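Exercise: predict the fold of this chain.
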Amino acid sequence: MNHPSPQSGTPHQALKTPMSSAIKHASQSAKLITLIFVLMLVCTISLFVGAKSISPSVVIDVLLAKADSTESLIIVESRLPRTLLGLLVGAALAVAGGLIQSITRNPLADPGILGVNAGASFFVLAGIVLLGNQSMTEHLWLAFFGAMLTSVFVYFVGTYKEARVNPLKITLAGVAIGALLAGVSSSITLMNPVAFDEMRFWDAGSLDIRDLSLASMAVLPILAGIIAALMIAPALDNLALGEEIAQGLGTPVKLVQLSALFAIALLCGSATAIAGPIGFIGLMIPHIARRLSGPNQLWLTLYAIVLGPLLIISADIVGRVIAANEIRVSIVTAFVGAPVLIYLARQVTSFGKL
């Protein structure tokens, strides 16, 4: 009498794994769709709520192009641009944070800690001082190149004489380079009144750009960075198993890491150029997304695309309504992000990992 081999199993066992995978996929899709609806609700609230009280009927008339008044200027030139900008910047910083934490395998890494934002800011400042750049288009390109060069430099310093990525060395290199660039930038702005005046508003981090054309310039580079992040997500899952295993699975490790750095530079450079440096989004959102997605980098990235705008637009709404003169979104995110950073640091200290 022949007995079935252990590998063959029963038909029910053979269907168990695909069925479990389908159920998990449906669950992830349902959670993502729910978050998208919540984001749409927050975006709607962002159009209706602000420092100045405007009747909902007036807001609807303005959005339908049926009204032309002082209120329409507030809605069309302030609330609508900052809502759209929140969608772009939130997604860019959240996805960049997920990429940085993935390639460095450091749960405390984000664009600010690794000096990427400082690099983007420094190059914008250098353009103002040396080239007299004033246009947002020039700021965008300078911020992109600054973020790119800083990312590559931090990566090579962190991997110098190392056979593989050293998360501790990359983090220390990023903190040191970021502090150096921030110190030099502060010295330049203090000695140059023109640069100080130009950077004073931009360097604080705000969504209040009052110009949709500025946001439109960042759409393509941010979309390119997000698409790149989605494309390399399966390879990053392999890298999470270790570089040797990833290479055994056919993953081009160095190419994937450099592709991630390029995507990070696109995302951080563009976001920083149009909104200034906004901290903690890239730190907090990947952890929230990871709790929903598990270890799958593709789902983590998809959640980050939604959760980043959800957090930053909510923070912007809070900043508008709790103070008469409005509190900039970077300050609100810092109030939320600082306790989260302390909590994450304690988790790492206590358990060695999150």
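Check your answer against the key: Residues 3-16, 349-354 have pLDDT under 50 and may be disordered.
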